[in-house]
Amino acid sequence: MDSSYSSSSICCIVIVSILLLDSLLVCNGGKTSIYVRKAEKTVEMPLHSDVFRIPAGYNAPQQVHITQGDHEGKAVIVSWVTPDEPGSNTVVYWSEENCEAKKKAVGKVYTYKFYNYTSGFIHHCTIRNLEYDTKYYYVVGDRKLMRKFWFTTPPAVGPDVPYTFGIIGDLGQTYDSNITLTHYERNPKNGQAVLFVGDLSYADNHPNHDNVRWDTWARFVERSVAYQPWIWTAGNHEIDFAPEIGETKPFKPYTRRYHVPYRASQSTASFWYSIKRASAYIIVLSSYSAYGKYTPQYQWLEQELPKVNRSETPWLIVLMHSPWYNSYNYHYMEGETMRVMYEPWFVEHKVDIVLAGHVHAYERSERISNIAYNIENGKCRPVKDQSAPIYITIGDGGNIEGLANDMTEPQPEYSAYREASFGHAIFDIKNRTHARYSWHRNHDGYAVEADSMWFFNRFWHPVDESSQ
């Protein structure tokens, strides 16, 4: 009797141990992590926090940030704010190899008013004709007070050029936001640029959309974005539409503060555009601009996708804010009408990966599509499709609204992995056929991969990865 009881106990312990080691629950679809983040209120960092510190000195440049400044990767847009007066709008820059040959570029200054807020002097300056794969130093400010930074340009565009992107969304400026950014900075994989999928400052969560919180956010992220480009996507928290206080021009703070090279890809608005970077072709779309047939965004994308040369840039990446596939009970199906419009194009052109935010959690899909549906056949279920992208929802940066932890049950078949935790991801392109993807939970060590997989390029190596 005792022996039988002992054997049963051992068997139970082994089963439980296996489950704990795996740390996952197998559901109707893929895997839902059984990791449960400790229930804590998401708290915004106070204005006196050291991460918001204003640089010392009168009219010192602050909120320095860079992004790609052209279509090919040989230009950089340098942006900064001077709080007291315009000061110098010149950027002095030089390459590490030739520090004696200093060059200058001159930009423009902008200001704006939002309700009872008046911005500082916002500078945007494009540095052009840079050499590929070169480290540059740059200085902003006048002679009284200059600040020095650096960045590295990408390698020349080519099919087998390795390059590593960080992926962050819905960041905000909470204590969790700070952990996310620190986790990304200390990740040993060393992202070279960030694909940011929208929702920056969450200033609109404050009374009267307090634009001081745009300033604090930009000072907070300066430690990363002054040194490597962040590729911007507009989210719903960038709309800042507030007719109750007389603010009826959408996206006013965002468009004044964050310039992108949209004209280089023949776009007519900064909310949708494309760039090439190393072996990747990146298309940014706007979930909150008109996207139906005959609209400017629709016409642009229709003309843009056929331009992608997969022999030159094999990796086709799309950024947007509102996800098309989402198994959380938050923002459910908000992206559905956009999916209906554009998903057939994504399948036709074999998009590799679609990155979105909006839902404050993490989810990775299988390669699926729902392009068979029409009124006549009545089919309305996603099916596996090896020409379709994998959809990543990564709105888990740490924002003030907290985590989305209410999931639909059972887990849909299209959902490969999901977890309600804060974190960031890395997309590490190796060559034209393979890329390593990993998602990193904030509560783990810097090198720990909570979810990972090998991506096989849809154009050059369209092998089913789901067997992983």
TrEMBL record:
Annotated signal peptide: 1-29
Span of domain Calcineurin-like phosphoesterase: 164-362
InterPro entries tied to this protein: Calcineurin-like_PHP, Metallo-depent_PP-like, MPP_PAP, PAPs-like, PAPs_C, PAPs_N, Purple_acid_Pase-like_N
Coiled coil: none
Domain Purple acid phosphatase N-terminal: 61-153
A Pfam family hit: Pur_ac_phosph_N
E.C. number: 3.1.3.2
CDD domains, sorted: MPP_PAPs
Molecular-function GO term, any one: acid phosphatase activity
Keywords: Glycoprotein, Hydrolase, Iron, Metal-binding, Signal, Zinc
The reaction(s) this protein catalyses: a phosphate monoester + H2O = an alcohol + phosphate
Keyword NAD: no
Class of the enzyme per the UniProt entry, highest EC level: hydrolase
Chain ranges of the Purple acid phosphatase C-terminal domain: 388-447
Cofactor: Zn(2+); Fe cation
The keyword Zinc appears for this protein: yes
Family note: Belongs to the metallophosphoesterase superfamily. Purple acid phosphatase family.
PANTHER family the record matches: ACID PHOSPHATASE RELATED, PURPLE ACID PHOSPHATASE 10
Listed name of the protein: Purple acid phosphatase
Organism of provenance: Hibiscus syriacus
